[in-house]
Structures are given as structure tokens and as C-alpha cells.
């Protein structure tokens, strides 16, 4: 029997942390590097040990329960998703476990899913839909792993959602830029010209800016794109490079320490600008609304909005555009 662990009590057997990285230490005392990310390290640990790890401060899930299936999914599958998606999944999984953790995964019926949607929908219909969407994906992996034979979420009607239809007018876009910092204004222009998501812009490295253009691999979809140089793109990149930066800064947009802006840090700056804009009588909009404006304007100009978005299907692009399209009408007098 091995020695009882005296520190890092939240780690499973045979896992150690050293110099910021997690390692698997087998009986042969050989150290196998797993990852610096704890969630990914646990997933690799599970592959090596052939079992599902669980935190010592949590109750071990019941064999065959939905709680066990959710835990396995969150360790082996969820960490490989985009960072924002993974963070959202963790919150959704916790809400699902409050209801289903001790229920046998095979015993869940479509009527149970419908009841969850109705009950959870009292407080938030959108969150109820997202949580059941995650549960449905968990069940698809449960079938693949041989834990369950069917997916009780299939065929259960979700709550109807109203698509966001906020379109940013040109004068609004310029108005916010005028009261924003130079950094925010440049990032806004980059978002509009490229239709890139905020995360892809903030993680953009200088090495991705080449003679051919800007190379992008979207964090969310994995789509690879080359944004060829245009007058507008040249201008916004030159302005970004002119911002104060450490000599060794590797990112196009970076902090004084040369690191990329975090999602929360940028969100705080963006919210301050939107509060100021609202105080001046403007109507607030989200940063993601800029992407929708870019795609809508691209379509109106006869451009290939789908390629600009990096979507795998035209339907995905239409989802952004349809709710924001409008017609200009000449009044009678």
C-alpha cells in the first residue's frame, strides 16, 4: 500500500504536480507528463488508469448513474472544447447533477427531460435549453461508451427562443469608437473588417501577420482562414502595432506585461465604454453584435458572408443575418 498523500489532496492516486504541470507517476516511478491544464491532465490520467477520477471532497458517483456519466464526459470530452464553451458546460453540468446525479442513466425517459425543461424554464428558458442540449450530447457519448442504448433528449421540444436582432447602425458604431480608448476602437475596427470573434482577435499573435495576410484558425470551429490584405486591414493592423507594447510582446493586442488580454479583462473595459455610451443616450450593444453587423453588411454588399464568417454552412451565416436584415423605405412625402 502506497504512502498516504499529505498535500494536493484534490488529486487522484498516481498524479503529482511539479513546476506547474501535472504528471502520472506509475509503480515503476516513471514520471509521465500529462498537461499544465488540470482538466486535460485528469482526462489523460483516466486513459492511463482506465477509470474516472473524482475529487476527494465529492461523493463518489453511483455506478451506472447519470452523475457518473456526466462526470466522465466533463473529464474526457468537455476540456477539449473552446475555453468559453467549456466554462459554460461546467456550470450547466452542475445544474444537471443537482437533479439527475443519482438517477440511473438508463432510467431517464423523455418525460423526465420535458419536466426538467418546464421546471428549469420557470427561471430561465434559454438556460434550460442549453443544459438539455449538453445532456443530449452527453448521452450520445454514453451510447458510444456502451453505458446507455438511447438518448431520451431526442424528440423533446425545447422552449422557443427569440433570436437576437440588434443591428448596430453606422453612426452608433462610430459614436462608441469616439468615446472609447484607442485600444477598444482598434479592436472594434478589427472585429468589423474581419467578422472575427473576440477570442480570436485577442489571441492573435504577431507571427500570424504575414506578407500574404493574416492567418487564422478559429478557436470555436477550427476553421482555417487567410485574410488577404486590403487597405482597411493594413490600416487597422498598423494602428494596432503602433500601440504601446513591451519589446517582447508576442500578441497584436497585449497588456503591459506582453500577455494577451483575458476575456474578463476586456469585458470590463468594454462594459465601461457601453455604460458611458448609455449615459449619453445611446443604446447599448454587445461586442458580438459587431460580428453580426459585419456579416449583415457583407451580404448587403454582395460579398461572401459565409467565407468571412468561417461557417461550415450557409444556414449558420443566415442565423446571424436573418434577424438583422432591414429594408430602406422612401416615405410618401
From TrEMBL:
One of its GO terms (molecular function) is DNA binding. It comes from Methylotenera versatilis (strain 301). Pfam families: Phage_integrase (PF00589). CDD domains: INT_Lambda_C. One of its GO terms (biological process) is DNA recombination. Belongs to the 'phage' integrase family. Residues 162-333 form the Tyr recombinase domain. This is Integrase family protein. The keyword DNA-binding applies. It comes from the Bacteria. Keywords: DNA integration, DNA recombination, DNA-binding. InterPro entries: DNA_brk_join_enz, Integrase-like_cat_sf, Integrase_catalytic, Integrase_recombinase_N, Tyrosine_recombinase_XerCD.
Amino acid at each position: 500500500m502506497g504512502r498516504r498523500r499529505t498535500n494536493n489532496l484534490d488529486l487522484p492516486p498516481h498524479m503529482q504536480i511539479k513546476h506547474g504541470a501535472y504528471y502520472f507517476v506509475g509503480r515503476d516511478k516513471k514520471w509521465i507528463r500529462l498537461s499544465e491544464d488540470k482538466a486535460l491532465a485528469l482526462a489523460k490520467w483516466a486513459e492511463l488508469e482506465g477509470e474516472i477520477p473524482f475529487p476527494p471532497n465529492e461523493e463518489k458517483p453511483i455506478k451506472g448513474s447519470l452523475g457518473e456519466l456526466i462526470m466522465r464526459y466533463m473529464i474526457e470530452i468537455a476540456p477539449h472544447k473552446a475555453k468559453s464553451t467549456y466554462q459554460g458546460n461546467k456550470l450547466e453540468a452542475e445544474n444537471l447533477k443537482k437533479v439527475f446525479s443519482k438517477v440511473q442513466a438508463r432510467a431517464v425517459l423523455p418525460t423526465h427531460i420535458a419536466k426538467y425543461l418546464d421546471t428549469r424554464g420557470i427561471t430561465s428558458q434559454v438556460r434550460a435549453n442549453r443544459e438539455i442540449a449538453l445532456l443530449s450530447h452527453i448521452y450520445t457519448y454514453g451510447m458510444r461508451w456502451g453505458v446507455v442504448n438511447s438518448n431520451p433528449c431526442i424528440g423533446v421540444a425545447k422552449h422557443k427562443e427569440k433570436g437576437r436582432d440588434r443591428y448596430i447602425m453606422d453612426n452608433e458604431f462610430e459614436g462608441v469608437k469616439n468615446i472609447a480608448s484607442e485600444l477598444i476602437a482598434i479592436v472594434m475596427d478589427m472585429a468589423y473588417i474581419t467578422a472575427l470573434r473576440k477570442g480570436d482577435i485577442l489571441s492573435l499573435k504577431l507571427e500570424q501577420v504575414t506578407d500574404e495576410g493574416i492567418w487564422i484558425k478559429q478557436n470555436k470551429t477550427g476553421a482555417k482562414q487567410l485574410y488577404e490584405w486590403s487597405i482597411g486591414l493594413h490600416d487597422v493592423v498598423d494602428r494596432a502595432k503602433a500601440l504601446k507594447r513591451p519589446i517582447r510582446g508576442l500578441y497584436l493586442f497585449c497588456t503591459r506585461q506582453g500577455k494577451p488580454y483575458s476575456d474578463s479583462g476586456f469585458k470590463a473595459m468594454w462594459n465601461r465604454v457601453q455604460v458611458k455610451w448609455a449615459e449619453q443616450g445611446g443604446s447599448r450593444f454587445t461586442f458580438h453584435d459587431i460580428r453580426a453587423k459585419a456579416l449583415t453588411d457583407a451580404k448587403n454588399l454582395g460579398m461572401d458572408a459565409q467565407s468571412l464568417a468561417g461557417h461550415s454552412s450557409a444556414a449558420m451565416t443566415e442565423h446571424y443575418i436573418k434577424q438583422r436584415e432591414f429594408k430602406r423605405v422612401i416615405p410618401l412625402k
